[in-house]
Write a structure and sequence with these properties.
The protein is mainly α. The protein is built from 18 helices and 2 strands. Helix 3 (63-87) packs across helix 18 and helix 6 packs across helix 7. The protein starts with 16 loop residues before the first strand and ends with a helix.
């Protein structure tokens, strides 16, 4: 075929280099992981608090909402991965090729959503249920956790490998909890109710809860906000597709730094390359479906069934960390003291792992954007930028905790609003990116294009509802 001219725009950033697409691995098991990391990081307060709380209030009639939310995010994740598989660049870099500052916009919104150390304080609170030390020790436990997270993320020779191992342990713990719950705590009624909530031909009953809460539960089932964008970074570090040519993020202290390419690559659409592409694309879809989607849904379903079996109909339950204390006490009473303790231990460790993942993906997005767009000609490496951002997040969290601040209303408003706005905007940008920047054979089309249109409509509606509701809370 004639000499290939890259289709990736080069107005803002230098043009990509042309290289052949690497061969898919002979053993797929070796590169399974990014979907599990996405699921593991996403298994946080939504799976342990929000969805079980909904089940405690209205039963399992709304579990169909989790399925819709996770399927929507699966399509989003695959379009984020499509660009990285084809170019080795992250989706943020792709957006910045269309307008220089898109990556900065998303990084700022992600930082604003995640700067407050909410996940470590939630994990620390669950630790106090185990130790009986009371609320006064939450601050000090959380500070210790933040320092452990920063050390872990910046001292590991290959950061993704360390994070993957932590998340694998977390998922194994949650799976253990699920198996024990099935054997000892989940009753027969909950299985019947689960079937009703997923029945084909069901009328999709909407429970009598605040509409924005229900839409938010659907939207953030599995992940949400900046975490979905980080699928690009995780599959690149795992060596998916053209990402195999890009050096991995390593610790500048214990790792071996490489001269990282500031831009990516593109392959000519030859018969051989397109055959490899089909294999990579098939594998990436299966990996996301079998890990991110399946693990996320099973966790939501089983944690909801556990709550339904133990605290359904109990008055005065709060949609917050106190819910986990009530549920743990109920498990102690219904099954035995050992099970309540197991529930709190696994919950505390799971939320700690989520906190580590949140610091990682926030720092990855920020370091990728800063190095690629704003520090391209500077001597500092992306690894060192990542190091500084991780420690800045951890130390800022320590300062916040030492000052004894409660989470302010304005930050709650921003956190609730930013994720919906981000997903609405990048659903639009993914259509533009994967239609204009890729060769004809690789473009998004057909039902996948329809899924992105659905995502725009859904997250656009959620954005309007969330912003309107939070503005009313702020300004009356």
């Amino acid at each position: 075929m004639a000499e290939f001219t890259p289709t990736v725009p080069a107005r803002v950033l230098p043009p990509v280099a042309v290289r052949d697409l690497p061969d898919p691995p002979r053993s797929s098991w070796r590169i399974i992981g990014p979907g599990l990391v996405g699921a593991g990081v996403g298994l946080a307060s939504g799976e342990f608090i929000l969805w079980p709380y909904i089940a405690s209030q209205v039963g399992l009639v709304f579990i169909w909402g989790a399925a819709i939310g996770i399927i929507t995010q699966w399509f989003l994740n695959m379009e984020i991965e499509r660009y990285t598989l084809a170019t080795g660049e992250t989706a943020l870099t792709g957006f910045s090729r269309m307008w220089k500052h898109w990556s900065l916009v998303f990084v700022v919104m992600t930082l604003c959503s995640n700067l407050w150390p909410g996940w470590v304080t939630t994990s620390a609170t669950m630790m106090t249920y185990l130790t009986g030390t009371g609320a006064g020790s939450v601050r000090w436990i959380a500070i210790g956790m933040l320092l452990v997270i920063a050390l872990g993320l910046t001292m590991a020779p290959v950061i993704y490998t360390m994070l993957e191992r932590v998340i694998f342990v977390k998922i194994a713990l949650v799976a253990t909890l699920a198996i024990v719950a099935i054997l000892f705590a989940i009753n027969a009624d909950s299985w019947i109710e689960l079937g009703k909530g997923l029945s084909v031909g069901a009328e999709f009953p909407v429970p009598p809860l605040e509409f924005a809460v229900l839409m938010g539960a659907i939207a953030y089932a599995g992940a949400g906000g900046g975490q979905n964008l980080c699928q690009s970074n995780w599959i690149r570090d795992k060596g998916f597709g053209m990402g195999l040519y890009v050096p991995r993020l390593v610790s500048p202290v214990t790792g071996q730094e490489e001269a990282a390419a500031s831009t990516g690559f593109q392959f000519a659409p030859t018969k051989e390359n397109l055959a490899r592409w089909q294999q990579w694309w098939r594998f990436a879809n299966i990996e996301q479906a079998a890990t991110f989607a399946l693990v996320s849904f099973l966790t939501i379903a089983l944690m909801s069934m556990l709550a339904y079996s133990t605290v359904f109909g109990k008055p005065g339950l709060a949609n917050g960390i106190g819910f986990l204390q009530v549920e743990g006490e109920a498990l102690k009473a219904s099954v035995g003291p050992w099970f309540g303790v197991l529930f709190w231990v696994i919950g505390a460790l799971s939320l700690f792992a989520s906190a580590m993942g949140i610091v990682d993906y926030t720092s990855r997005l920020a370091s990728d954007a800063l190095k690629t767009i704003y520090l391209r000609d500077k001597a500092i490496s992306e690894n060192r930028v990542y190091f500084f951002i991780v420690w800045a997040m951890a130390l800022l969290g320590v300062v916040i905790l030492l000052l004894g601040f409660d989470q302010p209303l304005i930050l709650l408003v921003f956190s609730a609003s930013f994720a919906a706005v981000m997903m609405f905007v990048y659903s639009i940008l993914l259509i533009v990116l994967n239609r204009r920047s890729l060769p004809e054979a690789l473009k998004v089309r057909s039902y996948r294009l329809g899924a992105l249109v659905w995502s725009i409509a859904f997250f656009g509606t959620l954005t309007v509802l969330t912003v309107t509701q939070q503005a009313q809370k702020l300004f009356g």
